[in-house]
Design goal:
Blueprint: H1 2-8, H2 12-41, H3 46-75, H4 79-109
Length: 110
């Protein structure tokens, strides 16, 4: 959400709107991730799955910070980086929805 807002412009109401979106998305990332992992992988596999996802997320964030700097150095703008993160966010959302639907389907098939 915030990357989309930063690409649009810097009107004060847009800045406030995307600050609110950023706050909500931060809460979703910290609260919903454990709930989704528990739902998708079950309580039995929760610890292993959550540890793996948290590790991959940490490595991904570390990589993306450097990658964004590289993109800014090459293009003189962060807009391509924001576009990439927006695309990755949409893909992650689609993946989560598909996993939740597959889990719900498997539970109903039992």
């Amino acid at each position: 959400g915030i990357s989309c807002g930063l690409m649009i412009g810097c009107n004060s109401w847009i800045t406030i709107l995307f600050a609110v979106v950023l706050g909500i998305s931060s809460a979703i990332g910290t609260i919903c991730l454990p709930i989704w992992v528990s739902y998708i992988f079950g309580k039995r596999n929760y610890v292993r799955a959550f540890a793996s996802i948290a590790f991959i997320q940490t490595i991904g964030v570390a990589f993306l910070v450097v990658f964004f700097g590289f993109i800014e150095d090459m293009t003189g703008s962060y807009k391509p980086a924001y576009l990439i993160i927006l695309i990755l966010t949409v893909l992650a959302f689609i993946g989560i929805v598909k996993c939740c639907n597959a889990t719900a389907y498997n539970e109903n098939a039992k």
